[in-house]
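Lecture notes, unit on protein representations.

Consider one protein chain, 465 amino acids long.
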Amino acid sequence: MDNKAMDLDILLEESLEKILGLLEEKKYFQARDELLKYNAVDIAELLEEITEETEIEMTIILFRLLPKDVSVEVFSELPSDDQVEIVNGITDKEIDFIVKEMDFDDKIDILEELPANIVDKILEKTPKNERKLINTFLNYPDTCAGSLMTPDYISLQKDWTVGEALEYIKKVGMDAETIYTCYVKDSGRKLIGIVSLSTLVISDDEVRIKNIMRTDYVYENVYDDQEDVSEDFKKYGFLAIPVVDKEHRLVGIITVDDILDVMEEEATEDIERMNGVIDWENSDKGYLDISVWQHVLNRLPWLIILMIAYIFTGMIITRFEGKLSEIICLVAYMPMLMGTGGNTGSQAATLIIRGLATDEVDTSDVWKILWKELRVGFLIGAILSVLNFARVCWLDGNGAMVALTVCSAMLFIVVFAKVLGSMVPLLVKKIKLDPALIANPAISSVSDMVALSIYFAMALLFLGL
């Protein structure tokens, strides 16, 4: 966190204490004035904290005292639980104003989160034509491009002149999500080109739109997966991408601020999966908002699978139990070898999964990746083996053959773990599954079983057990 962010956090904390004090003294207008020192995002954060520290009624009072234009922005930034409480605590007239003034895509996001009875209450206040459009958007699956788009875009006709287009933008631009890119449609609403505002500004007023529009544009289908959409945003760096239906009719646009939320959700989901957490509800709730029982359900499946996997690890140890009793010092090195194998395998898996997610590597690179990880594994294994040889002989006082057993096992274990960690995600990707499903604990458990097998094999070879 940089110094600027730290300073803001300190200011917000100080303001929160001040606001809480003013609320205790029932100085509501002074508390509101303290809130208004910040932007809508920070005000929403402060209201969340106030809700946790006081009764929800205090939050509703402060919200109702905010200027109307500010209250709309703040409402869209609040978590859904607080939005429900506020909707239940304000008048129908206030609800009507918020719904009318809110950006369309924010409105859709909020309606998707709110309970059905609250949605019905809001839709009752919505004009009939807009209500129909909202219902259409709400019917798109949560994971597709249609659920992210907004219909608030600038559309132009190909036969308009630049002068006519600029006049039109001046008239409707304030209600559009963005004016930097305009979309050209034919009479049948089909998208036929795009033109940037900068192109319009530098062109002569008499020039026709069809003569300056670009026809080589990137677009999404309404049913494209959100993750594919986010990849296009990362690849092309656009501020907005048009969305079309199966007839190539323009139905909306997706802006970069909406896709940022998707990127965060996808990254969170991948991290959870890689660490063996299965989110059965696909919930976007925070850690503290999820119940204890749901946390148990999310974490338990992989742990059961790993527990079963470690039964086989135990069987391997039991198989050599008698031999281990003859040279008991070998037991002391088992945790180190198993831990090193698991960690190196997880390192390789994390790098490959990340590379697949960012398109740095592909399944076609399998031989390049294998060759690289073999060399990396050999070098790391060799360095760790040399260090451990010195430790086993000099610090632990064991013989050279014991040291050779431990160190040769270390070399082979590291090489195997690197290969396992790098190849398994590629295999999963090849069969059209999400590589993040291969949790790091799973790779570690397989690596542990193989590590013990290699260790005992080296013991048989060098110590004749």
